[in-house]
Design goal:
alpha/beta, homodimer, 2 domains, 12 helices
């Protein structure tokens, strides 16, 4: 997905948020903001938002000297989500359709996103996602694909959200071998190997790494990952960043996300705030 | 009030919104965005947000060739609000404290703001504002000032909102002579003379004009207005733009607003979304 002009002020805001995470020094904040503005002045919009975001966050890292501005928030939300795990399992246990409920919870967990300039209210999001219909609901073909697949690649999004993924992984592990992909290096509050292990994914799936960018930009991933991406029978793609970067890639991809930004909501044809389970089969 | 770094991405977003109001031509949108970015790169933050906003919207006007991008929205919201007028009067009639209810409604009307990058939901805002306590409530001294004043200057904010002001003006007109100040030229969706007359203010107050900027930047207003500002016994200041531009001016000023942006909310020490009736007496 290409970037839109709307992405420019949003990425600028994100860079300021990230700088404010690292330091209270307003001189540093201003330096980040101005360098990012200069960069964005000439950025080609043909690039996907995660590609531009990678450049923007690199500037934040360079100026602040901190390569993981969201470290504390990631630890905090891993803890919060782990504390909710028994409750999430209870919701699945008490439901009529365990798998569908786990899918809903995995999508609800996508609210834990500090790149989206939004308020994070987990409990309200869980309640809303459980009670409302999805704006796009390809659940029937999700179930069919699950039954037909021997290999699943699960593209993670954020720390904390990983616990919600775990609840879904526990429901689908019986169907196929699962590879769970996290970021190679810290970027925004995206999940890394450390987060995946902390949240207990290592006993459910093989954990691999993508790259140092938000989303999954295949050109920046190593060949082994690209081979896994190309050969998996089914890909579960969490969140906006993954959608932005692979929405035009071939594969049997199921996008699970909360539409939090107007550009992605418009691309999907849904309202902001909607839950989406969308199959996008592109011929290889 | 000085601008903050947070104002930069917000103003950039506003410029894009305004350009999109005028045309679907993305080349124009991009030209506006880039010229505004170049301008904002060197803008002194010592200026108030309305001063910078004036420069930003001037660029939008110059590039699009349209000096009133929000014209249609202003007409629309004048119509919507006029349609609500009988209902608003009914709420006042049925209330225990007519004046306090009219104050609440005048503040609720401040939701009609297209410079604030927010969702405009009038009915929900009325309901919330009527049922919740103000975050800052200087109503007792508002009543006392009203009883002691012979001249009141009422600084309007937005088109549509004017109808909500009218409901309050009808309750306070018995206390003092009222001057109602609107913008001299169109800027964002701020009320102009045309809007004030359409909403029936001319039978309740003398209508005067300020300048061609958001808020009330006294240096850009004519001497007659400044004299009125300096000599009025009481000033009722609606909305964020007026707060941003005159929060440090001397005078017996009552700010009525919904805190819609994080910078103003922080300056006032309240949460975003809160209703505020704040007296700020600065010695002349």
């Amino acid at each position: 997905m290409k970037s839109k002009l709307e992405c420019i002020p949003c990425l600028l805001k994100q860079s300021l948020n990230a700088a404010e995470m690292v330091t209270d020094d307003q001189v540093v904040h201003e330096k980040v903001l101005k360098l990012v503005m200069k960069e964005l002045l000439d950025v080609p919009l043909g690039r996907s938002p995660p590609t531009i975001a990678h450049t923007v966050y690199s500037i934040v890292h360079d100026v602040t000297g901190c390569d993981d501005p969201y470290k504390d928030l990631k630890v905090k939300y891993n803890g919060i989500a782990m504390g909710m795990y028994p409750c999430l399992k209870g919701i699945v246990d008490d439901s009529e359709d365990r798998l569908f409920t786990a899918v809903k919870l995995a999508i609800a967990g996508n609210i834990i996103d500090f790149g989206a300039n939004i308020q994070v209210n987990i409990k309200k999001t869980i309640k809303d996602t459980l009670s409302r219909d999805f704006a796009i609901n390809d659940y029937p073909s999700f179930v069919k694909s699950l039954e037909e697949s021997e290999s699943i690649l699960y593209l993670a999004d954020n720390a904390g959200e990983v616990v919600f993924d775990r609840v879904l992984l526990e429901e689908i592990q019986e169907y196929a071998d699962i590879v769970y992909a996290v970021k190679k290096e810290p970027i925004i509050n995206d999940a890394t190997m450390e987060d995946a292990i902390f949240c207990g994914i290592d006993s459910l799936a093989e954990i691999v790494t993508t790259a140092d960018t938000p989303g999954t930009i295949l050109e920046r991933c190593d060949q082994e990952f690209v081979d896994t991406f190309r050969s998996s029978d089914m890909i579960i793609s969490k969140g906006q960043g993954n959608y932005e970067s692979i929405s035009e890639e071939p594969g049997n991809i199921f996008f699970m996300l909360l539409a939090k930004c107007p550009v992605i909501a418009a691309d999907l044809g849904v309202e902001i705030g909607c839950a989406v389970l969308k199959r996008a089969v592109q011929v290889r």
